[in-house]
Specification:
Signal peptide: 1-25
Strand content: 15-25%
Distance between the termini: 47 Å
Keywords: Signal
Number of domains: 3
Largest sheet: 20 strands, antiparallel
Protein name: DUF3352 domain-containing protein
Number of strands: 22
Radius of gyration: 28 Å
Organism: Tautonia sociabilis
Shape: globular
Length: 591
């Protein structure tokens, strides 16, 4: 069982992160953090963030009177926690979350002195500074009493450091201090001192880090929430940790360089709610400048026009596509394999032979005829209360540059694998219906039997595969309205740039209805239990959803449907990395 005081301390930190608000010049910024900072999460103005969340469709849903019985029930389940918080630090959970009134950030930095890494949290309490001071004082007292720790104070640059040392000698101390309404909480004394000593800025700062600057330039610096992870710093820490355990740091670094991992510099992102034309929008940028090497060569995604193929019906529940240079991917795979196992792919090819002498050459027969685009569509069978989360059918489509050549390859695959599909003609196209085989399993484990058949066809310049033959027949039949001309898709597509590497489109109502039905019927709980069946003790400790949410108090689906928003996503691969954007639009289509 977790110690109540640990829960209390965690909630205090969590509250500070989520509840900070308008900006204050006193809060140290990125120029105060060291350039070796591993990660940082920033809230520019959490008062604005809270307001934006309230203006979003999710916030409006929570304000709907039909939601009140459910919210009251959830609130009642937190009553014991609120009572404990009130006794220990003088405020409820809601009051705690609303205490800070300025910007906030949480950073993880490297520390060579006390501990390998240190955590720093900074928040501005604004006009609630006195309340924050009382919370921190009472929290310090509780930590000292309940965790049997030792508290002391130390003066540093005119500020009082409150230091709480846990009883375990190898545990780093928790430190906090304040200046005006700005509060700094850290794990590790030296990390807090380093921040205070450089509060006005340092030359080798996070702001001056080229990777951090590149992500800021790509995504902007004015979002409600932003985050950053220095991949290179993380890799160096892992290599160092391996060396301390007896590994060879030099060999590890050489391997990572060979694999091209050293090109992954950093990743960062932004999140905004109820902003501009979006109900919500998140952007993520994986910074990997320079020519691709190693495993990064596997994923070359040239840009294409964000238009669905003409065979995609307007009735799909979801659509996603990726532009992927498969020829380049195979060439990169061959180079990587030959670095470690020269000739391995050729040996595999020689081992693939059918009863009639059929052979497969990966480049010539498989990757050569393939195109550079892969798409997946999904549909739901049933509607309303009958819409089942398991009733989602998907179809995979891979573009072909040479249909006839790949048909020959497909025949070879059938011969070599021993599969005997049933062939049938559908409006001039041959459909192969294949009964899925029983898959081998580990000793003592049940055999895996996939459900039903897979239907495969080559037509319209694509290889199609699906477990729902009627969906394939609909694609082959054609003649209906297409997704490319669908008004809902066009509204979303207006937010795509002219060229993308991937893009997706979703109709939220069908997916949300399926999840809603799963909750109400208990199917979701059954799925969780089935998924955790092999987890042993962890599965036994999995909570029952009915203990967390009274299903009877969940309102009718029509309440949720009023606030569902149309959305999509897209990504663009450029010379300096990959940018991924996900968004949902307001209910009225604009702001």
């Amino acid at each position: 069982m977790r110690s109540p005081i640990r829960v209390l301390a965690g909630l205090t930190l969590f509250g500070l992160i989520l509840a900070a608000a308008p900006t204050s010049a006193q809060v140290p910024g990125e120029d105060a953090l060291p350039g070796s900072t591993l990660a940082v999460v920033k809230v520019k103005s959490t008062s604005d963030l809270r307001e934006a969340l309230g203006n979003s469709q999710f916030g409006r849903l929570l304000e709907d009177p039909a939601m009140q019985p459910l919210l009251d029930d959830i609130s009642a389940k937190f009553e014991d926690l609120n009572t404990q918080l009130k006794q220990r630090i003088g405020v409820t959970l809601k009051e705690l979350l609303e205490t800070p009134q300025g910007p906030a950030w949480l950073a993880v930095t490297r520390s060579e002195n006390e501990i390998p890494i240190a955590a720093l949290l900074v928040a501005d309490a604004g006009d609630k500074s006195e309340q924050m001071a009382e919370i921190m004082a009472k929290g310090t007292e509780q930590l000292e009493q309940e965790a049997d720790g030792q508290a002391r104070t130390e003066e540093f640059q005119g500020k009082t450091l409150h230091i709480i040392q846990p009883p375990a000698e190898d545990s780093p101390p928790l430190v906090w201090t304040s200046e005006g309404s700005v509060y700094i909480i850290g794990v590790g004394v030296e990390a807090v001192k380093d921040l205070l000593a450089n509060a006005d800025g340092r030359e080798d700062s996070l702001a001056a880090n080229p990777s951090y600057a590149a992500i800021g330039e790509k995504l902007g610096t004015d979002s409600q929430v932003s985050w950053y992870i220095d991949i290179q710093q993380a890799i160096q820490m892992l290599v160092q940790a391996a060396a301390e355990q007896g590994g060879e740091a030099g060999q590890a670094e050489a391997l990572l360089q060979t694999l091209g991992v050293n090109q992954l510099k950093a990743v960062g992102g932004t999140v905004d709610f109820a902003s501009g034309d979006y109900d919500s929008v998140s952007r993520t940028f994986l910074y990997a400048p320079g020519q691709r090497n190693g495993i990064l060569r596997l994923f070359q995604m040239p840009t294409i026009s964000p238009t669905p193929e003409p065979w995609v019906p307007a009735t799909v529940a979801s659509y996603q596509t990726i532009s992927w240079d498969l020829d380049a991917a195979y060439a990169a795979l061959g180079d990587l394999v030959n670095m470690f196992l020269p000739g391995a792919l050729e040996n595999v090819e020689r081992g693939l032979q059918g009863p009639g002498g059929e052979t497969i050459r990966f480049q010539q027969d498989l990757f050569g005829p393939l195109g550079d685009r892969i798409s997946i569509i999904s549909v739901y069978s049933g509607d309303g209360d009958a819409l089942d989360i398991d009733a989602q059918d998907a179809l995979l489509a891979i573009a072909l540059e040479d249909e006839q050549a790949f048909q020959t390859t497909l025949n070879k695959i059938f011969a070599i694998s021993g599969l005997t599909p049933e062939k049938r003609d559908f409006q001039g196209t041959t459909i192969f219906d294949i009964e899925l085989p029983e898959l081998p399993a580990a000793p003592g484990a049940p055999a895996m039997q996939l459900d039903g058949e897979v239907s495969i066809a080559i037509a319209k310049g694509y290889l199609f595969a699906t477990s729902e033959p009627t969906l394939l027949e609909q694609i082959l039949r054609g003649g209906g309205s297409t997704l490319a001309d669908d008004p809902q898709f066009l509204k979303v597509a207006a937010k795509y740039p002219a060229k993308v590497s991937t893009f997706t489109f979703n109709r939220p109502e069908e997916q949300a209805r399926a999840v809603y039905n799963a909750f109400k019927s208990g199917q979701f709980q059954q799925a969780l239990q089935a998924g955790a069946a092999g987890a042993g003790e962890a599965a036994a400790q999995m909570p029952d959803l009915s203990d967390l949410i009274d299903i009877e108090k969940i309102p009718e689906f029509s309440v949720f449907a009023k606030y569902l928003t149309q959305g999509g996503s897209y990504s663009v691969m450029e010379d300096d990395g990959l940018t991924v954007t996900q968004f949902a639009m307001p209910k009225d289509g604009g702001r």
